[in-house]
Design a protein that fits this description.
alpha+beta; Beta Polymerase, domain 2; five-stranded mixed beta sheet; 4 helices; 5 strands; globular
Length: about 110
Amino acid sequence: MIQKIYPSRVRDLVLSSLDELKAVNPVTINVKKISNFTDYMMIASGTSSRHIQSIGEKVLEDLKSKKIKPLGVEGQGSEEWLLIDLGDVVLHLMSTNARTFYDLESLWDPDL
């Protein structure tokens, strides 16, 4: 029997991984009502490119242990931005400069 993994469960697993590796200012935006491709947009920063990559590796490792596979990973090896697409959850790990420049929080939730 295949077990359904709920988007909120995936979100919580990602948040736990972010917290464990001390991601900077993690934000979760519920975009169910305005997006047809995902339920949650998550954004967090790292203190360096190595920190961003380490956070990404931790998230992927923790999800793999729960048998959750990403649909895609973009930006591995990048110093500015790593994107992990989990279908119902999209995680953006960004440098502080990239996060300020692209301002995804305001794009997805003008109240932030």
